[in-house]
Design goal:
alpha/beta; 364 residues
Length: 364
């Protein structure tokens, strides 16, 4: 197996110069750097990453803690993180916190003990122990998807990357109101998550824009998972005046809602309209095709890596929150005709909705 000394002899430089090229510990002239890289390629030299980490205090690894096994939404985010990390020469260590606060802190500690350079974490509904650990050990961290804005008891602040939630949900609700619906039910997410509170805020904003009253009974937590959505959907359908349109606040809950509607023999959109926050690969294969808000999942993962690497390069810069836009994907489960939904452009960037009055037709 070729050694660093073999690379140095082949390139006609010192071992120290090879080390500087590999570890980026000192500037090297471009032609010298290229000679070293050519020698590495020709000899098939593989750097000792453990030895490199001892020199640089960096392992070129990133820890990722997201509930990718229990939440399919995070699977695409994981793919975005992995691709962006590999592109920049970083390896990825992955742990699933299962959205459990105690387990979350443990797996993050394990990732930290593996000496990752930084962490990307989708926090649980109660992230106090997690954030206390990260702050106490000054771990470079990006919070992903779920933010902690407004939490004055948390210090230091963390970089955050997430999607827009409020405006997209408001647009979905105003779209339904524009189709004539006056009782719009919401299967909300797990209480305590920022995504849940922001989407409920968007739901209320959409009602207000449409001139409709907010009713507590029309918002039922589905706890961000399928079984919870089944219970929530059943509760909404059991109301004395059930909703004529239903919005689910993530893709797992959409499956749960559909299961209940089918069990009760209800047809979408003839008996009840269904729209969802979170598009997914097979949403276009349902009959009817599901009208949805699509989140930029892979882009969120890639952006989290970029923000983390910027943090590693500039540890003292102020923390920031990056929000990426979602897209309104207009299909037919909202009750629009196929030709009407085709008039909208699936995947277009979502903007703030124009004010819409009830009965004036759909926002397309």
């Amino acid at each position: 197996m070729p050694t660093m000394a073999d690379v140095a002899r082949s390139a006609g430089v010192s071992v120290a110069t090879v080390s500087h090229v590999l570890n980026e510990t000192r500037p090297v002239l471009p032609h010298t750097r290229q000679a070293v890289l050519d020698a590495i390629e020709e000899l098939g030299y593989t750097p000792n990453t453990l030895a490199r980490s001892l020199v640089t205090s960096r392992t070129r690894s990133i820890g990722l803690a997201v509930s990718a096994i229990s939440n399919p939404y995070f699977t695409e985010i994981l793919q975005g993180v992995e691709a962006a990390a590999l592109e920049r020469g970083y390896s990825l260590l992955i742990a699933d916190p299962h959205d459990d606060p105690e387990h979350e802190r443990k797996v993050v500690q394990l990732l930290h003990e593996r000496r990752v350079d930084g962490l990307i974490v989708a926090p649980s509904a109660d992230p106090r122990a997690l954030l206390a650990y990260l702050g106490r050990h000054a771990v470079p961290t990006v919070l992903l998807d779920r933010v902690i804005d407004g939490r004055t008891d948390i210090a230091p602040p963390f970089d955050q990357v997430c999607a827009e939630n409020t405006e997209p949900m408001a647009r979905l609700v105003t779209h339904l109101a524009g189709l004539g619906h006056r009782r719009i039910g919401l299967v909300a997410g797990l209480p305590g998550l920022s995504t849940t509170s922001e989407r409920v805020a968007g739901y209320r904003q959409g009602l207000d824009t449409a001139g409709l009253p907010f009713e507590d009974c029309l918002v039922v937590p589905g706890d961000s998972e399928s079984a919870g959505a089944e219970r929530a959907t059943a509760a909404l359908l059991s109301l004395a005046a059930p909703p004529t349109a239903l919005v689910t606040a993530n893709n797992a809950m959409t499956i749960g809602a559909l299961r209940v509607l089918r069990a009760r023999g209800l047809s979408v959109p003839d008996d009840i309209v269904l729209c969802c926050f979170d598009d997914f690969a097979w949403a276009d294969l349902f009959s009817p095709r599901l009208t949805a808000i699509a989140q930029p999942s892979r882009e969120l993962g890639a952006e989290a890596v970029r923000v983390l690497l910027e943090r590693l390069a500039s540890p003292d810069r102020p923390a920031r929150t990056v929000r990426l836009p979602c897209a309104f994907v207009h299909r037919t489960s909202c009750g629009c005709r196929e030709e009407d939904s085709a008039a909208g452009t699936p995947g277009t960037t979502l903007c703030a909705p124009e004010p819409q009055h009830p009965g004036k037709g759909p926002l397309s």
